[in-house]
Amino acid sequence: MDLGLAGKVALVAASNKGLGKACALGFAREGCDVVVSSRNADSVAAAAQEIRGLTDARVLEVVADMSVPEDIERLVQSTVEHFGGLDIVVANAGGPPPGGIDDFDDQAYVDALNTNALGTIRLIRAAIPHLEARGGGSIVTITSAGVKQPIDNLLLSNVARPGVVGFVRSLATELGPRNIRVNNVGPGATRTDRIRQTMERAIERALAEGKTREGAEREMARGVPLGRIGEPEEFANVVVFLASPAASYVTGATVVVDGGRTKPIM
Question: DSSP 3-state assignment of 180?
């Protein structure tokens, strides 16, 4: 299926690794010019080089921290100056630390909201005029399956990310007449570096108890109807589709990519 993305300019925030990098690679494979960003210069340069090596895409790397307003403005401006415009924005940022009510002071909540809510809002606000200048475009935010069903021990994420869903649902109504679509995609457990490290520790403990590696992985995927942990490419495929003209009548949606583990009615 031709998604109609060839020649589009896609900016993917926090795309030096994990889900962000998988999304950037997905857009590159569809023929987009791609902007990758991270607050770590070496890491974002390595991600850009990897994507160039795997595709024929033009890739711009920008060092930017999603918690710093000036960095976000510069990220968008650098994209437009380099590629001449902007068609797609994927708002992404690293998740806040795990923990519960006894683990955080006020500053922890402020930091989570600044990065995971305000960072997204700032990026979208900065991008809208440039999307309009191209006659419209698409915005996708990377949230969490927790926006549908709160996840235990991820209190900061459960506070910050649902606000983004409310923001996006409101924007869908406001930006629809401007031909700008906006959607959310929430990952469940996916085999990123962070999850892989957690899995390896759990597998080591299971092996020490005489269990098999395969059995340990099945145990970790318990509760997932598809019976396994997701792959970053599977998540990225959904983001790329929603951002593409192939999804031209989808806006204001929140799609959870978690193998069916989350079970809300709506």
Answer: strand
Q: How buried is 105 (Cβ within 10 angstroms: 0-12 exposed, 13-18 middle, 19+ buried)?
A: exposed
Task: Collect all residues with Cβ–Cβ distance below 8 Å to 126 and sequence separation of at least 6.
Answer: 72, 73, 75, 76
Cα separation, 166 vs 146, whole angstroms: 14
20, amino acid identity = G
This prediction has a pTM of 0.92
22 exposure class (CB count in 10 Å sphere: 0-12, 13-18, 19+): buried
- Phi then psi dihedrals of residue 59, to 5 deg: -130, 130
Question: Distance of alpha carbon 188 from its chain centroid, rounded?
Answer: 12
For 237, half-sphere exposure in the C-beta direction (CA atoms, 13 angstrom radius) is 7
Distance CA 5, CA 125 (A): 23
Distance CA 180, CA 243 (A): 10
Residue the block writes with tokens 């006659």: 135
| pLDDT tens-place string over residues 95-128 | 899 899 999 999 999 999 999 999 999 999 999 9
Kindly give, in sequence order, each residue whose CB lies less than 8 Å from that of residue 221, ignoring residues fewer than 6 positions away. Answer: 189, 227, 228, 229, 259
Rounded CA-CA distance 201/103 in Å is 23
3-state secondary structure of 231: coil
The Cα 164–Cα 183 span in angstroms is 10
Spatial separation of the C-alpha atoms in residues 227 and 144, rounded to whole Å: 19
Q: For the segment 232-255, what is each residue's pLDDT rounded down to a tens digit? A: 999 999 999 999 999 999 999 999
